[in-house]
Write a structure and sequence with these properties.
Elements: H1 2-12, H2 17-44, H3 48-52, H4 54-59, H5 67-88, H6 93-114, H7 116-138, H8 140-144, H9 146-161, H10 171-197, H11 202-216, H12 220-234, H13 242-268, H14 271-279, H15 284-299, H16 301-314, E1 324-325, H17 326-335, H18 343-376
Helix pairs in contact: 5-7, 5-9, 5-18, 6-7, 10-11, 10-13, 10-16, 10-17, 11-13, 12-13, 13-15, 13-16, 14-15, 16-18, 17-18
Length: 377
Amino acid sequence: MSTVALRWLHCNLFAKPFDAALSLVVIPALAWAIYASLHWGLVEARWEVIGGSLKVLMAGIYPVDQIWRAWFALAMLCAMFGAGLGLAMRPGRVALTAVASVAILIAATVAVVSGAGAGVLAAGSAALGLAAWSAVHHSARAQRLVLPGLFAGVAAIFAVLSAPGFEVWGGLLLSIVLTLTVSILSVPFGILLALGRQSRIASLRLISTAYIETMRSVPLILVVYWVWIIVPLLAPDTSVPSLLRGMAGYALFFAAYVAEYVRSGLQAVPKGQIEAARSLGMGTWTVNFDIVLPQALRVVVPSLVGQILDIFNGATLVFIIGLTDFLRAGQMILADPQNGGRTYEIYLFLFAVYFAIGGAITYASRRLEAHLARGSR
């Protein structure tokens, strides 16, 4: 064992004089950085600020007496994410053990910070996600119900959470719901734009191209703010909540990028298949939605998942219309003079959560991409 380790060190770290010199500089520096980080995190940091502010970070200013609605939304989100995993990867023993271990750790942390009841609810939500993962993977009927179940789940979340008012939504819950809703709305609109840009009808092609290029030429913050301002001018007698106006702005903006992703996928489909379908008498609608789109969407899965991450990370811009997203909730906590010295703890927690969610989405997308690739061979 020691011989193998010495051989590995020689080949990878000390093979050449420059490699040896670089290793002698980098390894001690890295060891010191790890030691300093662990010492600060275990000895000097005051993590009680996270526990005392967990409700604000997770749900913003949502009423405490209505917080059960937020727990319902969490359970639905876990179930939907588990169903998505069921389409992407097999719930093997190793994968289930790893995910269950992480869920138990999170539930235990929540129980310590917010009480046993909250820990039980967190564990129950995780168990629901694991059950959905296993059920969808092992049942073809459940797989066919994933898409309508996704729409039904989002509708249920809105129906339950909206009772106290949209203006009290906030924290990580707002960021996730906004990301999920905008992702669902932008995909069909983007597909229609992509098909319109390749349409034989000149006017439709011109309108689609103009819309896509306009949205891609302006920043997201401008589109969100513009929609937030223009809706009351167009419908002065109708009160549209800021959250819904913000989601509309996000969906209109990201649909243009979906259209370009889908257009690249459409161009990757061999023209021979389109010509063969038309020679069989298939109409344009049938050719596009039965032959072309399934293959095109398979190609652009990585790009579409990357856009989900862009939406999630861009959710911080909702502060311009008065909403409190996850990052803004952390800044609100730091605005309290009692927490003014806990900047590192708050921002490290925000970084860890963003990284964990982004990593989970990326890993699931890679598994889905591999699954689709196996189906195409």
